Amino acid sequence: MDEAIREKLETFIRRKGLRRTAQRDRIIAEVFSKDEHFSAEELFERVRRSDENASRATVYRTIALLVEADLLRQIDLGDDQTTYDPNFIEKPSHNHLVCIDCGKVVEFEDPGIEVLSDCVTRRLGFRAVRHSVKIEATCEQLRKHGRCPNLIERRLSGRRLRKRR
Amino acid sequence: MDEAIREKLETFIRRKGLRRTAQRDRIIAEVFSKDEHFSAEELFERVRRSDENASRATVYRTIALLVEADLLRQIDLGDDQTTYDPNFIEKPSHNHLVCIDCGKVVEFEDPGIEVLSDCVTRRLGFRAVRHSVKIEATCEQLRKHGRCPNLIERRLSGRRLRKRR
DNA sequence: GTTATTGCAAATGATTTGCACAAGG
DNA sequence: CCTTGTGCAAATCATTTGCAATAAC
After folding, report:
1. Chain-centroid distance, C-alpha B163
2. Domain range for residue A15?
3. Per-residue pLDDT of chain A (165 residues; tens, 9 = 90+)
4. CA of B19 vs C1' of C2, distance in Å?
5. How many structural domains is chain B composed of?
6. CA nearest B110 in A: which residue?
7. Does residue A21 share a domain with residue A52?
8. Hey, are the CB atoms on A133 and B126 less than 8 Å from each other?
9. What CATH number did the domain enclosing A139 receive?
């Protein structure tokens, strides 16, 4: 976990009169231990692995806290899951491309899109605070070579697939 | 309701071997009677006004149908509600700006953003199918004049506010 | 007639909450 | 101590589903 995270967190905790607890620390460590997106339930499972009696409620409450502190961001990948992205501290304005063939999610940054969005926003009489761009795309790899490594991976794992129909 | 909608719908219904029913017709008419965004529950209430014993289940099922036919689109306005947007037929690639002060949602189209997204996508080795841009912004009107008509409206109606915390 | 559709009520599943107990400052 | 945090189980709430009755084609 980054220094930047610790600092932002400390500040937030103090300003809100909150307390530092072992459970929170463990959950937060887990959140930032990878750069993977996750659902609340997935995080709960990960936390459970190292802490057999961690509570689901505490995981949900800690997620809410991190989102409020803007250390964690709720994103929409179009799969009807509430997904969280821990990478906004390192890449504060990154965006997402989702492949509708293989399910792969690619994060990217693009200053051009930034600038254009700001222009549009100003033109409409507002001041931009943040923007999120989601691109849904198809896999060139699959079209050209008839196969795509992520497609297979996705089939096997079954993760990140739409849950509802 | 537009001709384009009727046609797309007919085609879809036939191709899937579905049937035309009075209930469906009424619900669909209601969906496209305004350009307002709505939640499933809101649509249900609207439908109920003209059809006292319309069923919630049928409303949900019809929404799913329209989404599948790409006549209606599920969008993310960041308010933890599943929101539907009936305006993608008229404006096939419009985007949304949400004011975090007053809650106002503005739809806009911008060819520049289109082009840039396509570039990024190609650069990443994919082919863009669709993109959605959500801009969160603050209200210039509120800052400059100390007030904003939508702020008041929003307070009064209570709609489009986050439901969960 | 045969198959899709409807409406109801019950089921589901993610998230939240009340409460008694534990722990931080 | 005093207040916030935790864990459990129960409550919520949007959405889905099973099923018997009904309506398209």
Report:
1. 18
2. 3-83
3. 677 888 889 899 999 999 999 999 999 999 999 999 999 999 999 999 999 899 999 999 999 999 999 999 999 998 888 999 999 999 999 999 999 888 889 999 999 999 999 999 999 999 999 999 999 999 887 777 777 766 655 555 444 443 332
4. 13
5. 2
6. A120
7. yes
8. no
9. 3.30.1490.190
